Amino acid sequence: MTSEIILFVNPTAGRGRGAHAAQPAASALRAAGFTVRTVLGENADDALTRARAAVADGTGALVAVGGDGMAHLALQAVAGTRIPLGLVAVGTGNDFARALGLPVRDPAAAGRLIAEALKGARLREVDLGRVDGRWFGTVLASGFDSRVNDRGNRMRWPVGRFKYDLAMLAELAAFKPVPYRITLDGGEVREVEATLVAVGNGPSYGGGMRICPGADLSDGLFDITVVGDCSRTTLLRVFPTVYRGTHVDHPEVTVLRAAQVEIAAEDVTGYADGEPLGPLPLTARCIRGALRVVGP
């Protein structure tokens, strides 16, 4: 394995934490004897082009510094290759890092863990989801939560997570369940009125909301959480339990499992790892062992 490591940095992640996190992570890697080269970009497309070129040239690992958005971008460069991915998670959500059991908002500890794991060849393979050529690590969200994202992304004020809290309240006032058509593994079809449908490769999104609490990154299957026709009162009562993952015990919640799922509904956007994929219908496939990751 080459001793050069590519540090893939989003300087704006976590309101500037990305820029500050790169230095202690790089210092930990250099102290362990690795050569570190930093890759930035003028925008997401430029950064991804540079990361893909670095991976094609060969590197010991691609280490993404940022949040779930940066991890999502890094997946597009390394998924399906033998180049391992390391994460220095300093964003707002950090759900993929949590799913992998990696340090969150401690860049020096993350750098040391990555260095030790690379020296000891402690790498493992995990599954990824794929939709129309786009890879994702955590959850493909649609329905109420994706409409909150749509509204939040249109808002110019306030900034940060509070914007999405306000967007949620606004959507809650107007939201009605959506007719969905869910096709599992190309065969079984379910037509339901649903508040949301979440396709989980990993268990959580939104900074720790365990929407698919039983999702396993190495079983080759998605956990698909379907929240049925809920009243606003029921939704407000169930929502806090998502952080514990106990919402799946509610009678309006169903969990399905499949290696491939198509979700179809009108006027609904799909988001994966918090990034917009486009309007439904979308077909997601769970690709077993698509990613090599550095860590425990």
TrEMBL record:
PROSITE patterns: DAGK. The keyword Glycoprotein does not apply. Its cofactor is Mg(2+). Residues 1-135 form the DAGKc domain. GO terms for molecular function: ATP binding; ATP-dependent diacylglycerol kinase activity; metal ion binding. One of its GO terms (cellular component) is plasma membrane. Transmembrane segments: none annotated. Keywords: ATP-binding, Kinase, Lipid biosynthesis, Lipid metabolism, Magnesium, Metal-binding, Nucleotide-binding, Phospholipid biosynthesis, Phospholipid metabolism, Transferase. Signal peptide: none annotated. The keyword Magnesium applies. It holds the Pfam family DAGK_cat. InterPro entries: ATP-NAD_kinase_N, Diacylglycerol/lipid_kinase, Diacylglycerol_kinase_cat_dom, Lipid_Phosphate_FormReg, NAD/diacylglycerol_kinase_sf, YegS/DAGK_C. PANTHER family: LIPID KINASE YEGS, SPHINGOSINE KINASE. Belongs to the diacylglycerol/lipid kinase family. This is Sphingosine kinase.
